[in-house]
What does this fold into?
Amino acid sequence: MNLGRLHQLEAEFLERYPGGFDNPEMQAIAARHRKDRMEAGAQAGFGPEAFGNEAAVCERFARLLGKSSVLSVFEKPRLREAIASFTPPEVFGFAEALKDRLHGDARRGFEGMVRILSDHKLAKWPVISVLPAYLRPQDEVFVKPTTAKAVVAAMDLPLTYRPRPDWAFYEGYRAAFHQMIAATDKSLSPSTLAFGGFLMMSL
It folds into this structure.
């Protein structure tokens, strides 16, 4: 990992925004993303006890992602329409995949989500990765394709980005994120989403 490049980006960002994400300008930007509301929605709708009704789980997923500021305006209606068109086996399978991803075998859940959404041409990194990042903002990471590609290149990460989400890349990218967070000022990482925002703005 190119820590020298990372520290250069850190110094430039903190010179521009003293205090990192505590800086008033950054606080104003963060407020537009409704972080607290999105995290609360994830906690309320996708805790371990919330998976009794598979159709409701799928609907909550579409509704929460429809409110997300980090998803494309083009992806949101397509996702809503796709989930509304799920067959009964898809409803059951997607709800089970979400439960696994969040509270069980994470890899199996991730791959189940990708498999089902692939049939609707919606197996995209933002759709797959945003809910876990809202539910566990100190652990999981949001994969924004343009940022991920830039991070891999700038930080000399031994990872190969592909448009179709795959677990091996996710694990490696998440591990690299936590290495970078540990090596930088805490004001840059009130959450992994915030740290991703720092990288997106800096690269």
About this structure: The chain has eleven helices and no strands. Residues 3-32+139-202 form one domain. The chain has a mean pLDDT of 95. The chain has two domains: 3-32+139-202, 37-135.
